[in-house]
UniProtKB/TrEMBL annotation:
This is NAD(P)-binding domain-containing protein. SUPFAM superfamilies: NAD(P)-binding Rossmann-fold domains. It comes from the Bacteria. One of its GO terms (molecular function) is protein-containing complex binding.
Length: 264
């Protein structure tokens, strides 16, 4: 199959692209450095020419609802329209479990962006060819947060009740989904696959475990951002479709040598 991975240099996208290539697919690795800008639309039509599947693994680094909504809505419209014009058979949008729930995203701008992304895909892509793959938070998110919000020896991580998964495991589910024909949906229905990790915990606990293993950063502070639903379990799926195998302990053991703050 010819599969376009948009955001192929990212934490998830790089793993998805590698897996799909290992499985013998023709993979187009799309990101700005490769000449594809999903926000302006530059390079999308060429990347999608003759493609069977498009996987959206894009992200933007912002907490601003305005910026997140603008980025995810615009890129989803551009990708969805280009995929439709190129008669791509399956569009897989990677999203976040419950990010489209107003109780969860009310005070979390990035999640409002993800809700706008899902809605934008539903607007422009035939539901028969669209799958939203909603993942829980990844262990790597704690690393990303510690890398982004650090001052000297102190890092700040949001308090989030979650059921985290290893990005590597989620990438496998994304690759499986991309290479499986989409199951039929009812009229106007939405195909959504929810992916969760093996156990519920707080992202702050993940960050502390990573920092303790690596000896850096020295102090981790929990921030009460994003509203009570984020801290109180609103991000935890009730009945996930897929439960990934890697536990925090196994993931830590596998990533023992990674530098602090590096999720790749
Ligand atoms: N982190 C988590 O715990 C988590 C959990 C569930 C779901 N997700 C979702 O998983 C997805 C991937 O997240 P991630 O952390 O892997 O992202 P990431 O590491 O930040 O990578 C983002 C990717 O998007 C590309 N990109 C950004 N702007 C672009 C543009 N205008 N045109 C083309 N490419 C562009 C980047 O490449 P260039 O900068 O080179 O263009 C990069 O390849 C996101 O949708 C996120 O919401 C994340």
């Amino acid at each position: 199959m010819k599969i376009v991975v948009i955001g192929a240099s990212g934490v998830l996208g790089s793993r998805v692209a590698d897996l799909l290539a290992e499985r013998g697919n023709e993979v187009v690795r799309a990101n700005r450095a490769a000449g594809v800008d999903a926000y302006t639309g530059e390079g999308l039509a060429q990347a999608m020419s003759g493609a069977d599947v498009v996987v959206d693994c894009l992200s933007v680094e912002t907490l601003s609802a305005k910026k997140a909504v603008d980025f995810f809505r615009t890129t989803a419209h551009n990708i969805g329209r280009a995929a439709t014009a190129a008669a791509v058979g399956h569009v897989v949008c990677v999203s976040i479990v419950n990010a489209d729930d107003p109780a969860v995203n009310a005070k979390f701008g990035y999640y409002q962006g993800k809700a706008a992304q899902e809605a934008a895909y539903r607007d422009v892509v035939d539901p028969a060819t669209l799958t939203v793959l909603a993942s829980v938070q990844w262990f790597e998110l704690a690393e990303q947060m510690m890398g982004r919000m650090a001052v000297g020896p102190v890092a700040i991580v949001p308090k989030m009740r979650c059921r985290p998964a290893a990005a590597e495991d989620v990438a496998k589910v994304v690759a499986d989904t991309a290479t499986t024909a989409p199951a039929p949906v009812g009229a106007g229905g939405l195909r959504k696959i929810e992916v969760a990790g093996p156990a519920e915990m707080d992202l702050l606990g993940v960050a502390k475990a990573v920092a303790a293993q690596r000896g850096s950063p020295r102090w981790i502070l929990g921030a009460s951002v994003g509203g009570p639903a984020i801290r109180g379990g609103g991000l935890v799926p009730a009945y996930p479709d897929v439960v990934t195998p890697t536990t925090l302990e196994q993931w830590l053991a596998r990533h023992a040598d990674a530098p602090a703050g590096s999720a790749r």
